[in-house]
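May I ask for a protein sequence together with how it folds?
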Amino acid sequence: MTTTNEQTKPKHTELTAVRWTKHQLKMLKKIAYENETQPAVYIRDFILQHHPEMQEPCDPAEL
């Protein structure tokens, strides 16, 4: 019998696939390396910085 895979980060379950040219991927990795992060984390942070409406609302109970 198989068991379901428990998600350890339930807020991070949605994935998207993005295709990059070889040059774009090389530049993305270079930029992320210069910022001391992984490419996916850099992309997420970049989007949230430039589109604050995508950030989750702050819940005062969590503070």
Notes: The two ends are 41 Å apart (CA to CA). The mean pLDDT is 81.
